[in-house]
Amino acid sequence: MKISVDWVEDFVDIPKDISPEDIAKCITKHTAEVEGALLLEKRYKNIVIGIIKKLQKHPKADRLNLTLVDIGKDEPVQIVCGGQNLYEGMRVAVALPGALVNLHGEDLLEIKKTKIRDEESNGMICAGEEIWLKPDNDPQAQEEIKIKDLSHLHVNAGTSLSKALNIKGLLLDIDNKSLTHRPDLWGHYGFAREFSAIWSRPLRSLNDLLFDGKEGDVSMKVRIEQPQVCPRFSACIVSGIKIEASPQWMQSRLELAGMKAINNIVDISNYVMLELGQPMHAYDRREIEGDELIVGLGKKEAKLMTLDGNEHTLHEEDPVIYNRKGEALILAGIKGGMKSGIQEDTQEIILEAANWNPVMIRKASTRHQLRTDASQRFEKGLDPSMTEIAVRRALKLIMQICPDAKLISPIENFGSWKENKLNIKVSPKNLCSKIGLQIPREDMIQILRSLGFGVESEGENLRVEVPSHRSGRDINIKEDIMEEIARIYGYEKIPALLPNLPSKLPQQNTIRFYEHKTRNLLAFLLGYTEILTYSFYGLDPLKACRLEEKAHMRVLNYLSEDQSHMRISMVPNILAVIGKNQRRHSLVKIFEIGRTYKESGKYMPLEEKKLIMAIAKKEEPFYDMKGALEDYLVAMGLSSYKLEPCQDPPNFAHPKKCLSINVRGQKVGYMFNVHPGVLNEFDIEKSVAMTELNFDKLLSRGIDEHKFKEPPKFPGISFDISILVDKKMESGSLLKKLKSLDGLIESVEIFDIYEGGELAQEKKSITYRFKLQHKDRTLTDQEFKTVQSKVIDFLGDLGAALRGACAKPEKC
Amino acid sequence: MSTDINQLRSEALEAVNASPDLESLKETERSFLGKNGRITDLLKKVKGLTLEEKKSFGKAVNTLKHELKQSIISKKKNLEQLQVETQLEKDWIDLSAPGKRRQSGHIHPLAQVQKEVESIFQQMGFSIIDGPEIESEFYNFEALNIAPHHPARDMQDTFFIDKAADEKEGRLVLRTHTSPNQVRTMLKWGAPLRVIIPGRVFRNEALDASHEHTFDQVEGLLIDKNISIAHMKGIMQEFLAGLFRKEMKVRFRPGYFPFVEPGIELDMSCVFCDGKGCSTCKKSGWIEFMGSGMVHPNVLKAGGVNPEEYQGWAFGFGLTRLTMMRYGINDIRHLTCGDLRINKQF
């Protein structure tokens, strides 16, 4: 919202020694965020009123004019101008050298003395859009260039534009979001009250601004059919109106606030809204039969053409005002109707200001996609006491601007609203302890009073009476009073203190500890890169992964088709990431820690923390993933894991390349190759192996106890044996048996598996490496030979051909 | 005999001396001192000698053996040194060629910053709490003093789960902030309380460079008997100094959040210009950092904490934004797009 400090100064004097920057900073610190501050005099520097004395065609350019312009100096100056609506005697805005004008929105152009087709030009004659006024030209149209005609301003040539238009002072741009809870700040008077509190300056009473003249006796009728829609409605009838343009000062203020000037009556109602925050409406009396207005709800399927020329179909919860004939006149609190609005020949008006139910206004404005200056204010919940005040303020302005105007009715108030005084008891001591700063009692009283609160001492405590512009809105409890005092006194005065709390250990978050540890292991030990994906996916990837749609929770109002289902598996989004990266990286190794979501049977869904690792490459990735998984589990202190052929592989897994992962007797996940059919669906040209683990379960049964083991004191012996077996024999299945062949066998591992080359096609060679060890002595050759032949005999019995016999035993 | 010995000595020493390299030295050693070496052979001649002769002969041979060994050792040293010198002379390596690198993985920047944040708060005695990402309307709104008609509850801001509403808890939503866990944590642990709650939150907002429908926040909550706004200034100043490893200032501004009163916007001194004013802070010297305030009595009550006995403050800041700020990431979408060229930079 735009706040003109010049306008605010109608009601309060701001200390003269405060710089514009400081004003903006102070408002930010004490009241609401100032997003921008513009000193208007500075914006209009070197732009003055000029009067065109002589107009002729440019000798060398058809579309240009050569003008002599009086700019208040001894001699008129020559300016080249392309405007087609120029005439001699026209008052125009002249940007002199050094001025900055608005070029196509954002860019500023500095005016310089120049020559255009050999003719000297001492400045620029401006169109409205170039000097931040109502535009004269359509940005698309290039044909005819129009210049701002300021002939209605009866000022001398050379007068600064800022002065001529009464556009001066600081223009603040306030962040609307920071005013959500402050309906009282949606007008300049509300800001004046804040200024007065911040700088301890007296605030001009509203009474000075209100009409208190003679009232007429024509009776005005308002029937409120739904009391909850409209708690208060103030109205009156004015005759003797002549519709014309409003005075320049008023137009300028409206335009600064971002509103268009239309005519005197409409401008006055908007002006009052910008000043007091209370929207108003004026009807042409001719459309209001019997001077009666009926406040009700939308009749089903009824139509209403609003002032912007759009037709709206009314809804049964829209607040609407009707005339006696039952014609909808306005979409109440949002936008006026075309038919009942002010016309060029309107002579008598009905003027109203009402208080509307904020929730109904918000819903109706959302329904009709019509957010207006009025609806924006009403949906915050305005002070009902303001309706009469607004009518009186408008009347004062009407009398000032339309000399023949006459109030022919009383100013009447309708509705069930009654003022309800709210009193809050606060303890200054308690307040200071919560703020963490000693604020003198007198300062508290002074601050509250300057904001319009009533304050009485009650012993140690204060009894605070909340003014109607805050009561029931943002001020309800003693904490609200604390905020008023603290913010005006100054948050910057609060010291930075550390609390005196017991230094006890915080609660341990074990899962989080291992999450971070997992990241370190996967990234720095195993070379996997962490990624983050969304918590949802669409129906297509879900189906591509052969997941059951029914098993998913769905998002009701999803943003796009690919975000409609809450993930029950991390696989689909990871596959998408692999697809995205496969062209650029020959090897993709990624992981993610995140949650999956599914129905639990209870109200709250089951959220499980999952770890997924994936590797994608051209060659078989199964053993890379298996190895990484094993390394990871051991490093996590879970070395007693079991990887077993999976009996129930998930649908997205290769049915023959899937292991189930068991840790401490509990199944915690799967390690698998992705099903080639699924890869096709994702257009992935590499093979992909993955591990998906339930991270909560993985750790739920604790980790290995870490115990030191003394290294053997005596040398052991290691030897290798290679055998030739059928390709489909499971190399790992013999390990356990081999180890149990003799007590001296400390360990057996698979050293190498070899296929192809000179081997028959259906055969493979496996090399096992044995390590023998005795804990009390050195082994003898004989012992080694005995064990070795036991192994050879065992393998021979299995039908395995001894291939590479035995390598030399190595002492180790 | 002694002439034999003398003869052999000069021959042996001569041979050691003449060995051109380690290999021939070894050969020389073998030919004199080996199993069938000539000195070993000498000893075989003692059979016919008298005891006296045997004694002196044996001594002489041993002396020779010793002498020869010493000479071999010293020759070996010389040859080794020579060999090293020749080696060094020959050696050359392409110092500019690349080292053998391991392909390290990378931790997501968000997780890195989260870990740092958690560790700083833990050092100040805060526990780290997690809460559900799919929340009830009750905890996401009502319990936080957000009335049913508050604009924050509009469909436009909140994702709803397609499931029938519960009478008490309302509909299920994707939590729009981490704040619901204020109440959950109070109900679970009671007061006093010192916790932070980092986590993923969701807003029904169209995606652009600075808006995501999915991002991370950190909620903080400190409840005790004498906690004041001044303590929030202190703790946050301490936290920011820990995070940015330099002195940081914070500034309060009035703000509005239904679950705190007073509501305070907290700005931090600009980390890029130390408050002098730059393009990042739009010349103001301050960067908007978080929303905060004293916990609203209604929220304390919803958490089963007596507002007459306990008081405290809460805050919430964007972890995602903080991460972007820390690394100068200008587009929020970079964090979740999964382009490894981005992830591998961290």
Describe it:
The complex is a heterodimer of chains A (812) and B (346). Chain A is an alpha+beta fold. Chain A has six domains: 2-41 and 169-204, Phenylalanyl-tRNA Synthetase, Chain B, domain 1, CATH 3.30.56; 45-165, Nucleic acid-binding proteins (OB fold (Dihydrolipoamide Acetyltransferase, E2P)), CATH 2.40.50.140; 209-414, Phenylalanyl-trna Synthetase, Chain B, domain 3 (Phenylalanyl-tRNA Synthetase, Chain B, domain 3, 3-Layer(bba) Sandwich), CATH 3.50.40.10; 422-493, Phenylalanyl-tRNA Synthetase, Chain B, domain 1, CATH 3.30.56.10; 510-698, BirA Bifunctional Protein, domain 2 (2-Layer Sandwich); 717-811, Ferrodoxin-fold anticodon-binding domain (Alpha-Beta Plaits). Chain A has 21 helices and 40 strands. Chain A is elongated, with a radius of gyration of 42 Å. The mean pLDDT of chain A is 93. The longest helix of chain B is centred in the first third of the chain and has 40 residues, at 51-90. Chain B folds into two domains: 2-89; 109-343, Bira Bifunctional Protein, Domain 2 (BirA Bifunctional Protein, domain 2, 2-Layer Sandwich), CATH 3.30.930.10. Chain B is α+β, with helices and mostly antiparallel strands. In chain B, the strands form two sheets. Chain B has a seven-stranded mixed sheet. A two-stranded antiparallel sheet of chain B has the order 2-3. Chain B has helices at residues 2-18, 22-33, 38-44, 51-90, 109-123, 137-140, 180-189, 229-244, 297-302, 319-327, 340-343; strands at 127-128, 134-136, 172-174, 193-202, 214-224, 250-255, 260-269, 286-295, 311-318. The interface between A and B is large, with 89 and 84 residues.
CATH superfamily of the largest domain in chain A: Phenylalanyl-trna Synthetase, Chain B, domain 3
Give the rounded overall mean pLDDT of chain B: 92
Spatial ordering of strands, largest sheet of chain B: 1-4-5-9-8-7-6
Structural class call of chain B reads alpha+beta
Largest sheet of chain A: 7 strands, mixed
Low-pLDDT segments of chain A: none
Gross morphology of chain A is elongated
CATH fold assignment of the largest domain in chain B? BirA Bifunctional Protein, domain 2
Oligomeric state of the chains? heterodimer
How many helices of chain A? The count is 21
CATH class of the largest domain in chain A: Alpha Beta
Q: Kindly name the structural category of chain A.
A: alpha+beta
Overall CATH architecture of the largest domain in chain A: 3-Layer(bba) Sandwich
How many β-strands of chain B, per DSSP?
9
Number of individual domains of chain A = 6
